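lol forgot to send this yesterday, sorry. struct tokens for the thing we talked abt
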């Protein structure tokens, strides 16, 4: 079964984000239900402004 990988924020960075501030979580890919679709995200980009907004 394919696995879904998520990089989650484990703790808020003090100033500079470090590896310890994130954790990798793997879960099974869900099966789409009636009227739903399943998409695969190939790339993801975040800007420093977005990161600051998410962590505050």
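and heres what i got for the seq, position by position
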């Amino acid at each position: 079964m394919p696995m879904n990988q998520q990089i989650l924020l484990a703790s808020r960075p003090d100033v500079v984000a470090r590896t310890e501030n994130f954790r990798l979580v793997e879960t099974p890919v869900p099966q789409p239900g009636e009227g739903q679709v399943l998409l695969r995200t190939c790339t993801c980009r975040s800007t420093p402004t977005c990161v600051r907004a998410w962590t505050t």
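Strands lie at 3-9, 22-28. anyway ping me if u want another try
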